[in-house]
Specification:
Blueprint lengths: L1 H37 L5 E7 L5 H6 L1 E14 L2 E14 L2 H5 L7 E12 H5 L8 E5 L2 E10 L2 E14 L2 E11 L2 E2 L2 H12 L12 E8 L2 E12 L3
Antiparallel strand pairs: 1-2, 2-3, 3-4, 4-11, 5-6, 6-7, 7-8, 8-9, 10-11
């Protein structure tokens, strides 16, 4: 019995070591390849974590529960996200492709991402023009100098970020000039003009925007996609 118990302990230890070894191989491959893939957009891969235990059965079966990656300082559409977290679930990645470090063969059933864009990184380039952006609840207070028909003053309004059909939108309301309220039709007209210049950020993996909201002094953007090749 003692001999059998010792053999069992040794076997379990060997399986755990093999499990951790395969996890390390897959994680290192993911980290290396993701760094290369995401380097096309820039940013630094801070962490890559794989889910599930035992891991060895996932590797042998070519099916992984999920993966979480965190990337910092990611330049997107002329701006720089402070963080981008990517969560992939139900990943198919055959063992032979793992050994061959072929990440393009890894397909996630679903990928969800959360991007954090500090409002200051939008406001700083506008400051020399006298445009100020400040958080006000779930909206952004916009103050900008205006001059027309011999009048000079400050245009102020609330900008509400949102998503319509996968595209980023900005809706203006409570528009005033030098403290005098303007008709809501003026805000609607300016919102329509603004829509021509507002561009949705191009996130990796062709992710489609789901929500955009202001949290504190940060814009928090969520996006998702189905059937995503992680090495694309």
């Amino acid at each position: 019995m003692i001999i059998l118990l010792v053999l069992l302990i040794v076997l379990v230890g060997a399986l755990v070591a093999a499990d951790r070894g395969t996890a390390s191989l897959a994680r290192d491959t993911l980290r290396t390849k993701l760094t290369s893939t995401l380097a096309q957009n820039g940013g630094t891969v801070q962490s890559v974590e794989l889910e599930g235990f035992p891991f060895l059965t996932q590797v042998l079966g070519g099916k992984y529960d999920g993966m979480d990656a965190r990337i910092v300082d990611v330049p997107i559409s002329g701006l720089q996200l402070s963080t981008l977290t990517v969560r992939a679930t139900d990943i198919s990645w055959p063992l032979g492709e793992v050994v061959g470090q072929n990440l393009s063969a890894a397909v996630a059933d679903r990928v969800d991402a959360t991007a954090v864009l500090p409002l200051a990184r939008i406001a700083d380039p506008l400051a020399p023009r006298g445009i100020k952006l400040t958080p006000e609840g779930s909206n952004i207070r916009v103050n900008a100098p205006a001059s027309f028909a011999g009048f000079s003053g400050v245009v102020s309004g609330l900008a509400t970020p949102g998503v319509t059909k996968g595209e980023l939108t900005i809706k203006l309301s409570q528009l005033t000039v030098a403290g005098v309220p303007l008709p809501s039709s003026a805000a609607s007209a300016l919102s329509s003009q603004l829509a021509r210049f507002v561009k949705s950020p191009k996130l990796p993996y062709g992710l489609t925007l789901s929500t955009v909201r202001l949290v504190g002094s940060n814009l928090v953007i969520t996006a998702g996609a189905r059937q995503v090749r992680l090495g694309s």
